[in-house]
Design goal:
This protein has 465 residues and is mainly alpha-helical. The chain has helices at 4-33, 39-85, 91-127, 131-146, 149-161, 172-175, 198-222, 228-236, 241-245, 247-250, 255-259, 261-286, 292-317, 319-339, 347-375, 380-400, 407-434, 453-464. It has a single domain, classed as Up-down Bundle (Growth Hormone, Chain: A), CATH 1.20.1250.20. The model is unreliable at 187-193, 233-238 and 441-465 (pLDDT under 50).
Amino acid sequence: MISRNFKNVLVVSVGFLSLFTAYGGLQSLQSSLNAEQGMGVASLSVIYASIIISSMFLPPIMIKNLGCKWTIVVGMACYVSYSFGNLYPGWYTLIPTSVILGLGGSPLWSAKCTYLTISGNTQAAKDGNKGSDVINQYFGIFFFIFQSSAVWGNLMSSLIFGQDTNIAYIPDEQLASCGAADCGLNISVNGTTTRPAQRLVWTLVGCYIGVGVLAMIIVAVFLDNIDRDQSSHFRENREPFCHTFMATFRLLKDWRLVTLIPLTMYSGFEQSFLSGEYTKNYVTCALGIHFVGYVMMCFGAANSLCSFLFGRLARYTGRAALFFFAALTNFASIIALLYWRPHPDQLPVFFVFPALWGMADAIWQTQTNALYGVLFPQDKEAAFANYRMWESLGFVIAFAYSTFLCLEYKLYILLAVLVLTLITYPIVEYNEHKNPTPPIEDGTYETPKETTEAYEHKTIYQTAL
């Protein structure tokens, strides 16, 4: 019989799977589907800029007032609004819904991370295990299920758009500008090679809205409200607003968090490159938009399987070995993308790069999330808010220069951030190896045997706050 905490991890994971089946599919298509005047990329940039703003103050306020469960539900509703904006894409529909999504994004992810960390610590205390090991396992399970959303969301887009036979024609002059061979800014965005029939767009977006609403129902009905009592206690004994507002920034006094900023921002850079640049300048340019879904399915499948694998492997290899393996994989891929000239005759190669990228991203996602949970056990909300803020800054910068920098320069920038990450991250890891952060359960769970489960939940939450 599975434990209550493991059941909750599964519910959160399935909810995020359903939600990001919609959002992940839309994000992969934005640079190609809404390419006119860079509207799609601009909307993505606004999303992550809004996430930065919301990361500054919203996560601690919402989590402490609503609790993790209802913060997740509200955040999911913000994501669904973006799908509605894509029914009739334009500056007056995409930008406002992008802002709404961004404001809900940071509380959503911070609440999820806090929920998984509380569940992991609780289960570790019951089983007599090390908290960080259980947290790693829970994050691995979450990303194993969550990352498969890229498979289903992109499968939907490819099957639906594949019904339009006109989008398959790629002229020779367009092929000459694909990849890093040309500046990559002059790819035709008005022809049949990029925009499918409007009825197919409506069909796809309608499906995305449906699975997004399903995600909200799953979490609202089946997820346990494990911090309900603590949220009620907080509402009755509120701290000054300024104190809660500044929680995210106060954590920046910790040099470890500051040193992790390049690693966190790189996560945003590398994800935005695949969804914004690779899909447009390699896949859509050389194969057509209907292939974007199939290629991103390969990314999602590799990411999902490797997330589960590395979540369990981390206890044997340690984080550092996995991080350096991911860095080596990305480094080799970036160099290869600089020299590869995509052509439809090289179809298998289009799937090799997302598979390698998915394997590396699985490490960046699972291990960075787990690292934040281990390093800042008493400030989880603020720590994960910082994580979303700095990762989102990477997204914003990457999407902001997407429309006016040549692809070659974008690859060089990605490479530079990766090198900086390899310089700064080992400093934190070495310090943690020499001076391990005391796990929260060491000072929390030395309680009498008659201690109840409710008390354990309360103690974990109060220590985390």
